[in-house]
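Provenance and format

Records in this collection were gathered into a single text stream. Each protein contributes a sequence line and a token line. The two records reproduced below are adjacent in the stream.
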Amino acid sequence: MDGETGTVLYEKNAHEPRLIASITKLMTALVVLESGHDQKEEITVPSDWAGAEGSSIYLRPGEQVTLEALLYGMLLQSGNDAATLAAVACAGSVEAFAEKMNAKAAELGMKDSHFTNPTGLNDEGHYSTAYDMALLARACLENDTLAKIVATKSVALGGRVFTNHNKLLWQYEGCVGMKTGYTEKAGRTLVSAAERDGMTLICVTLNAPNDWADHAALFDRGFAGYESCLLAEEGEVLCRLPVSGGLAPFCGVSAGEAARLCVARGEEIQRELVLDQTALTAPVAQGTVLGEAVYRVNGEEKLRIPLVVITDVDCCLRTPSGWERFWDKIAGMLPG
């Protein structure tokens, strides 16, 4: 998937719900970061803490740990205890946190996903798809803090050293991280992202035994065969229309939002400006929608963006003629 546009470049069984293991923690971290809690907030591990099944950062009862350390612990070292403690600290219980995870999934359009825990441990009601996890990955990359964490190879926090389990950070040039996962039932799961020449690609595999090589091969294929094209920046003037009765004779019409497409190299992109009117009458208000710019690839429509007035155009007050100014002056000299 192209990270900028969400265009799927290659897929196989992308919408088939499956167990996802610890790549779940991408959603956990995103919900924690959007909860409003400060990363420097110190959380006390409960005295009756019994730990968590599976991978761990070995939290101790009574220990104080920052939310930041828990985030690094769950994303780099895949600590189930870190994910569980962060979830409870932010929502009060695992169950309440899972509700927030599902609400976020719905917001992101993850239609074939459901979460029951913050760790990814096997549960019949806990599943997602490769496509949905790619949507989640896009959201994670848009969160600067989360993107920074998953791209970190190693860090020391609170007396612990966390080393990222994602080998692609060392093995693939341009890799910006993401998350690994594994359980016996789910198999190996992996979400990764890589950047090259201004283009970001996202790769997701579920139950893929050779995932490191698969991701490298898919990235190579994507970067070699596709390019991300910025067709118009937000606010860029795409045409001008005549204005009657205005202080300015013409008005700029601009892109209401950025237009970007990911296309196969060599594909032809066509643009058509579909305008509601071809001439304007003052006054004209900035931001008025006048139509759409339609982009097609090899004749197939791919994108529409609004066309808007770039600036206000006020009415022009009529300038008096020379004779009118002369008689006005004479009239001003006559006694009242």
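Adjacent record:
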Amino acid sequence: MKAILPVAGVGTRLRPHTHTQPKTLVHVAGKPILGHILDRLLPVGVDEVVLIVGQWGDRVVEYVQGAYPQFKVTAIEQAERKGLGHAVYLAREAVPPEEPVLIVLGDTIFQADLKAALQPGRSTIGVRRVADPRQFGVVELDGDRVRRLVEKPANPPSDLAVVGVYYLRKSGLLFDCLQEIIDAGIRVKGEYQLTDGLQRMIEKGEPLYTFPVENWWDCGNPETLLKTNRDLLILLEPPVAEIPGSIVIPPVVIEEGAVINNSIIGPYVSVAAGAEITDAIVRDSIINEGACVSEVLLEGSLIGHKATVRGSFTRVNIGDSSSMHLGGGSGELA
């Protein structure tokens, strides 16, 4: 089975980390965002991924081919950002119209029973109840079938948000509907929406059902990325590393090739391969590949690829009823 993964997003809210790499390759909980998504596709029979790429698309392809050789990889460039509907439409030449297709957004890490959702002869989309549906695409149900999809409605017809996982039994019908939308110039906020294509499928008589998504994690900005890191580390329960001369407080993931010297790491820390941490205390942070951190206390921080952070510990001797302020106060996320 083929899976379409739109991964052309530039991730403006994650800058400066996305100035030099695509959003989908940003690390969280021990691997790139894309790696967590691909881990969920292997058990359900996906053998080919169609990557809709943008800038640095070659790096996305290189990562998938190197880390997941089980997948055949087809890459298609989305030269202009015209929306999710347009991105999926670009895959039409790579997916035979008579075949079913799985579509998963390239920045959405999810937890769901995909095997149960991918039923032959049944089109389904993943949904989850949310407190404020106005921020999402929303489904309106008629019994157990989807009656209507609305993108970010001012008055939501339900609290069932579309998460970003779609299984469609008639890929050809989807591409035809997206073609109609593009030809007619139907856009929302300047972009062609996948929800509009799905709505046309419904209007043409295609039954569309939902399946529950237990959880999904946003990786759109530094704060939510760190929360996702915490949640996934708790969920994954990585083995506790034993490092002579250092203390590791789980949950922590330290990739092979990282070097830890005389430091306290954790909880909620991800350290990528090639990173080096010396004489430091690091908690609730993500340290990316090749980064060097020394003589500093880091908390709630993102340290980019090959970045260097060095501070200094201070020794003090102050008397009773004294007051001393050290450092520059609370800092912003790097």
